[in-house]
Amino acid sequence: MEEGQIQIERLDPETEFLLSKRQTGNEWELFKENVRPLKRGRKVHLLNEALKSHNDNQLKKSLLENRRRLIEAIDEYQGDDPLHPWLECIKWVQEAFPMGGDYSGLVVIYEQCVRTFWHSDRYKDDLRYLKVWLEYAENCGDAEIIYSFLEANEIGKTHAVYYISYASHLESKNKMKLANEIYNLGISRNAQPLEKLKDSYRKYFARSMRRPKPTDEDTVEKRLPGRSFGTVLSRGENRMQTTENSDLVKKNVRAHATPLTIFKDISNVDRQPDASKTDLNSWRTLGARAERNKENNAIPTKWTTYKKPGSITGGITASSIEVFVDEECEEIHKRNNEGGDKSSMLQLRHGDGQDLKKETELLRENPLRNFPPNSLPR
Amino acid sequence: MASKTVAKDIITLRGSAAIVSEFFGYAANSILYNRGVYPEESFVKVKKYGLPMLLTQDEGVKSFIANLNSQLSEWLEAGQLHRIVLVIMSKATNEVLERWNFTIETDSEVVEKGVSREKSDKEIMREIQAIMRQIASSITYLPCLDEACVFDVLAYTDKDVAVPFTWIESDPKLIANPQMVKLHSFDTKIHKIDTLVSYKNDEWDEQ
Fold first, then answer.
1. B153: Cβ contacts below 8 Å, ≥ 6 apart
2. I want to staple B183 with a disulfide (CB 3.0 to 4.6 A). Which of B98, B134, B144, B145 is the partner?
């Protein structure tokens, strides 16, 4: 051990901070219910700014501006790492919209980002790219299709976090056998970091041994606080946050999949109730633009008549973000769904809250709806 | 219990030291619980500071904290303790992920002359309560600790203080380029405690 407990020639950052008498605003604490925790953590000063700004029209306008600029940066990027400007934009959306929610466009930008690079060899093993996929999966009703897609397209298969995330999701759906297989698959492939994967597997295994029967959703409650925050919001993390409420689970469990299951049940009533059937259908009809247009046009009417029982945080706080909608741009509302990146990017650029919300709804329901049919797992 | 050693609203040096070391014990437990360093079920709920507080049942951790507290009290009474830091590190890599920094300002007059001060116990408790609430709420912005972690406690004392038997000298275990958040403070009029949490920056960009 090195000498000296207080050998500080220059002040360490913490002492310096304290001596400067800088105060950290406490918006983060006052509005903590409005904040969706991020796996990577947040910068508190940005969080405080964002929380303040959602009550301030001036700041709201500048938020809109910022988003436009970041999207432009994506288009104009010339360097050799095109993923980078996307990540900057995603990070910004996460900071600027602490509550997340459907009007933030977060899900939309996840989707556009992953869709832009899914065929790229360069990013197949890129951990950053994989993380975008995993965050996208967290936000979707039935993430299994995403995990299958990643497997089929060999994305992220060298990373432990893929298997941990996948297995976690399966566990929350009580698919213990399959989860077990996934862990073994990852270990057999020597996914890195291997120790982390093995560690997670050990804990999972212990949990699975403790389970009485594989059917009850109640058993999820007996799980240890999951270390994999990203996919399963275990009670440990959930203690202090109010994410989407779950009416299905009577107890205090807030596994991410469960609240999103409600979401699936409520929206798109004209779809088949069975999730897998829905997916199959949409694969076949993915190419048909008319079909998609029909969805986009049908939904608004259903929306106005439909009352959501679940208190999805995004929905409640959405009223404050709605004003965010840039009034001048409402007319430029893009109707054409050419499916090309350009038009959907424009959609994002004009930042129409309604558009974003609609698209988010559709994506949550069917995460791969914009992908070409030949890319989808069989 | 602090209330036993402290007469109504008069705060003595000993009483203040007891309040502070007790605070640290509860704060440490709360951090270990909220940050998932130890599993949830190894904690038991008690009432303290008007809040439900979690205390570990793990024998190792319990005795560690108990020993710590008596040492802290001793240092606090002598006015020799300046800072106490709870460090959370990755078990696998020993990398410091989070630091909970409690900085202590001691009224030296009290130490030297043995006078006492006055402050409402209730108010001190309210201040401590505010800090405890913030600790619990901090998951709002703290990064997820998704790997097995261990913790350590660093005490910053006067240079001339002898290192006690169960302690070792250490490097400060700082985080490079940390994000820092200042939380509330509390003040017994003899010891003033500032709380700060620093954590590793966002790592999305890492390959």
1. B28, B68, B84, B85, B86, B87
2. B134
Nearest-CB residue to B205 (from A12, A22, A87): A87
Q: Which residue of A has its CA nearest to B82?
A: A6
DSSP 3-state of B101: strand
- pLDDT tens series, chain A, 378 aa: 444 455 445 678 888 888 887 778 888 888 888 888 888 888 888 888 888 877 677 777 777 788 888 889 988 988 899 999 999 999 988 888 888 777 788 888 999 999 999 888 899 999 999 999 999 998 887 889 999 999 999 999 999 999 999 999 999 888 999 999 999 999 999 999 898 899 889 989 888 888 765 554 444 444 444 444 444 444 444 444 333 333 333 333 333 433 444 444 444 444 444 444 444 444 443 344 444 455 454 444 444 444 555 444 443 343 444 445 454 444 344 333 333 444 445 455 555 667 788 888 888 888 888 888 877 776
Distances (CA, A) of A84 to A46, A77, A122, B92, B142: 20, 9, 13, 29, 23
Q: Crossing angle for the helix pair A144-152 and A160-172, nearest 10 degrees?
A: 150
Instruction: Tell me which chain B residues have a C-beta less than 8 angstroms from the C-beta of A38.
Output: 143-144
Decide: residue A342, CB within 10 A, 0-12 exposed, 13-18 middle, 19+ buried: exposed
**Chain B residues in contact with A29 (beta carbon < 8 A):** 133-134, 137, 140
Name the amino acid, one letter, at B20. V
CA separation for the pair A340, B72 (Å, rounded): 65
Contact at CB, B182 and A2, closer than 8 angstroms: no
What pTM did the predictor assign?
Answer: 0.65
A202 CB-near residues (< 8 Å, 6+ apart): none
Residue B137: which of A32, A224, A236 has the nearest Cβ?
A32
Which tokens belong to A86?
A: 């996307």
